[in-house]
Design brief:
This protein is an alpha/beta fold and 214 residues long. The chain has a single domain, classed as 3-Layer(aba) Sandwich (Rossmann fold), CATH 3.40.50. The protein contains six helices and eight strands, in the order αββββαβαβαβαβα. The strands form two sheets. A six-stranded parallel β-sheet has the order 1-8-7-2-5-6, sandwiched between helices. A hairpin with a 3-residue loop joins strand 3 and strand 4. Helix 1 packs across helix 5, helix 1 packs across helix 6 and helix 4 runs parallel beside helix 5. The N and C termini lie far apart (67 Å).
């Protein structure tokens, strides 16, 4: 019994240490990104950036979820305000039936963005992929990441460290179901991204160059 208690105490101590390290990583990433996040289209910089719209759930029939809809609307507002000239819709497309980027493009066109000013990245399965491909495939030098507030610190941190001069704009427009779960998941997602950047390189999806004029 004493041996079991010692092992249990050791495991608890190890778990607490791991949580503390993850907390410090989140603190670092949040501090790194805080001055690069804008709360409104009016406050966003006008610096010849490309808007990178990060993908999210699409319902049957190509209907964007509320989370994704708000990201697209925010990106369209940036475009109409002249803050950006191009939109990169980056999302997942694992099957013919499930296609985030095309749904994002169709909605942006519906809101008034010309198709010629929209580029699609069908291999944005993860934020790391999106940032890597923004630099290596689409040759983007400066970007404004469009996503909900919880997601922006990690997005900016990844893009900056991959070589894209990135800032972010908050696309929160309403309460979302599951926000507490997102925050919990993001706590560990930030740590995972930090380890990938600093210790365990992630193998992204590569492809042919598709430069976006910037």
């Amino acid at each position: 019994m004493k041996k079991f208690l010692r092992i249990l105490l050791w495991l608890i101590s190890l778990g607490c240490l791991a949580l503390f390290v993850i907390y410090l990583i989140n603190l670092q990433v949040s501090s790194y990104s805080k001055d690069k996040i804008y709360k409104s289209v009016e406050a966003a910089p006008n610096e010849n950036r490309i808007a990178i719209v990060l993908g999210a759930k699409v319902w049957d029939g190509g209907v964007p979820s509320f989370v994704l809809e708000d990201r697209i609307i925010t990106a369209v507002e940036l475009y109409k305000a002249g803050k950006v000239k191009k939109l990169l819709m980056s999302g997942d497309n694992p099957t013919k039936e499930y296609d985030e980027p095309t749904a994002m493009k169709n909605y942006a066109i519906k809101l008034g963005v010309p198709e010629n000013d929209i580029a699609l990245d069908f291999a944005g399965r993860r934020t790391y992929d999106t940032c890597y491909r923004a630099k290596e495939i689409f040759e983007i030098k400066k970007a404004i990441m469009v996503s909900q507030e919880f997601h922006l610190p990690r997005s900016i941190y990844l893009c900056q460290n991959i070589g894209v001069d990135a800032v972010g704009i908050i696309s929160n427009r309403r309460p979302y179901e599951g926000e507490n779960y997102w925050a919990f998941r993001e706590f560990f997602g930030v740590a995972s991204a930090w380890f990938e950047m600093n210790f365990i390189p992630f193998e992204p999806i590569k492809g042919n160059k598709e430069p976006i004029e910037q």
